[in-house]
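Weekly modeling sync, notes
Attendees: S.R. (lead), two postdocs, one rotation student

Agenda item 3: backlog of single-chain predictions. S.R. asked that every request posted to the team notebook include the full sequence so nobody has to chase files. The rotation student volunteered to paste the first one in as an example of the format we agreed on. Action items at the bottom.

Example entry:
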Amino acid sequence: MTFYIVFLKQTGLTINEIFIIHTVAPIVQFLGTACLAFLTDKIGKAKAILMLNLILTGLSLVMIMHVPNVTVSKCTNDSVLFLHQGDRTWTTNQTSICNAKETKLYFEHCKEICAKGTELILAECEANASFSATMKSFPILNEVCSVSFTFCVNPTEQCSEDIRNNSFYLSCLQPTHEECSLTISERAMRVIAYGTVIIIFMTTYSNTYRFFDVTTAYLVTEHNADYGRIRFWGILGALTGPFIAGLTVKLSESFDRQVYYAASFYSYAILCLLTAGVVFRMDVRKFEAGTKMLKKSVELAKSPDASIFFLVVFLLGTSWGCHHMYKNWLLEEIQTSVLLFSVVDSMKGIYGLPFLFISKWIVRKVGETQIFLLAFLAHAISFYGYSFLQATWPAILLELATIVNYQLLWVAVMSFCVAITPKGLVATVNTTAGSIHFTIGRMTGGFLGGLLISNFDTRTAYRVMAIANTAFAVLYGVFLCCKRRFSKEN
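Predicted structure, as returned to the notebook:
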């Protein structure tokens, strides 16, 4: 998904339209994921739900590429020159018009230009009158052909001498692309179509991650496996994804150096279908369908441990969302090169790989709740560090914080979900945690970060987030101390 936003821009969607679509998408994502999680627990078939979302993700991505482009805000125009030589014959130097057999074309901003040495006199009407023309095929002669016009408005400019005895030109602009002549309603329908398909794609796309976690949780429980080592391969794949996307875009580059980002989308869709095939071959045992799910959900919601857990995941997700959305914004302010952008973005995966191999041992030794506490501190250090950046290279070191607040954190979250989840609610709890952190958290983090940046600046916003995470760490630490003391007394 490296070129996702760039592709949307290429389709003609404005930044405001993209923003509105991606504001609605998280709400649909959260509700859609919750419904599918409930269904998964009810029927006990996480594998089938995962395959369904993989297939729908690939298909919806292909659909995005086949929705007609919307009108771009500024259409380019080709200048067309028509020559009147004193009789009723008009000629033009546009070979494409000459080759047209029966075409209706639209021209705009037309004006008469008298032959050299004559004076142009404007009549009392529009100087730049638009008109339509019926073009018929005529033999090409020196790249000039005769054309027959049907004017919507009569030409209103005259030369100072008799028009029949002097040549003059009619200069017009013709829209280059067909979509430039779209009506407002036609464009609105295409934007709605894009928005609908994008929301479907974003929902199924996020569901693949959520239900990968659910399926992995089932397999880890069944085989007593290490979640971190399974996640290792996912992170490794995420590191190779941008390279594959860039390679496919480069190979699909046309001879005129026109870049077609759709190539990376087709590659992604193919990989989704291949992954669905691999999942189909996996031996994932059907788990016992959930019973009394509503009662168990209410009991879980009343649990102080579960309530605090979801609150912590939300706060950590808000911090992650803010940093994820505005990190490159801050790096751009200090004139970071394209190469360093890629390097910084890759470091969270590179740093985390070796720790994922021993994550089970780390989580068991440190404890899930202590890792949550360390994640707050890691976010605080990262925000503080980024707020003082004057050069890009220290950001590479600051990405070390992602070992705790991203890689180890999610292993701890999945482990804690298993510990607090009643039988029959595995999918519901796991997907809820993922949706709160990566969907709701990203939305609130993006909103909060944008609000702070618009009222202050990026560095101040990062320092405010650093102070907030420090405060969260202190409060959560006090809560853990009180809980431990209360447990000892009882």
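Discussion: group reviewed the output briefly. The longest strand covers residues 102-114.
Action items: rotation student to repeat for the remaining queue; S.R. to check formatting next week.
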